[in-house]
Amino acid sequence: MSLENNNTSKTILVTGAAGFIGFHLSQSLLALGHKVIGIDNLNDYYDVNLKLARLTELGIDQAEASQDLNASSSTTYGDQMIFVKMDLEDRNALPKLFEVHQIDSVCNLAAQAGVRYSLENPEAYADSNLTGFLNILECCRNFKIKKLVYASSSSVYGNSDAVPFEETANVDHPVSLYAATKKANELMAHAYCHLYGFECIGLRFFTVYGPWGRPDMAMFLFTDAIINNQPVKVFNNGNLSRDFTYIDDIVAGILATLLETSENASPYKLYNIGNSQPVQLLEYIEAIETALDKKALKEMMPMQPGDVKQTYANVSLLKKDFNYQPKTEVKEGIAAFVKWYREFYKK
């Protein structure tokens, strides 16, 4: 593994920059001296104020970030960051962004997230995850971008019993539309990589958690419920396990694939990026109880449509190619999240 232009600052487009992972990635890229072009549509799938607070941490003015302007003028400057409010599916505005800024690499994290929400609003997934991703691929082709790293998901493995999940496994049986769109992204990237020759790396994320996390994710939902004396909904009566992966470990893996070149480099690659230590759901709740020093009121619930019973990442390929090594124990990560939650929400 060798560093790409280790001492050279790059201009990197991060889509979904106001999102959980996009915010942390942008923060790390800026700390490394790179310039970030961040875009996000700031939709209301969850609390927009949390997204705006993340942008504030990045040095972006909230009032300006909320304005709807065009790609060449809707820019807000931090020290090394430009933010543009934009929909990926806007096929007129996105190319203008590439025209204005000399972008070296792209990290596409923007997507309509959530497995369960895809049952309620499937059109949002087609717009963002399919049309939006196609527009990104087209811009990478037309503006000669050398490398695209994009977010896939562990959900592509469906309800597979073959654990740990390996990248070579068959993923032709998604159990949610969200998972189907992520599988489609992998196929679309493969086609563009084959046809146009730029490097495409897909990262299958496994249940990311940590400070500034999404309010619809288990870590946030459980902590919020326990603190506010509300019942914690335990699906499938607790018979679930997840490969919970701390945000710092996720960002380390993204940075490696985005900024480095593997000795085993090939134009198209897929990698699992997880903790490789699945935790039972009830154990996870117990760890949150310990961090909060407060017991949860548990409400046992049936399995939810579109959900899966287990996730478990084999990360040996990412370790081999990019020396990926998750370091954060779940108890440590939970404690960090709880500390952030209490400070941010003053509870």
UniProtKB/TrEMBL annotation:
Gene3D superfamilies referenced in this protein's UniProt entry, alphabetically: NAD(P)-binding Rossmann-like Domain (3.40.50.720), UDP-galactose 4-epimerase, domain 1 (3.90.25.10)
Record-linked Pfam families: Epimerase
Keywords assigned: NAD
InterPro entries: Epimerase_deHydtase, NAD(P)-bd_dom_sf
UniProt domain NAD-dependent epimerase/dehydratase: residue ranges: 12-274
Secretion signal, residue range per the UniProt entry: none
Protein name as catalogued: NAD-dependent epimerase
Organismal lineage: Bacteria, Pseudomonadati, Bacteroidota, Flavobacteriia, Flavobacteriales
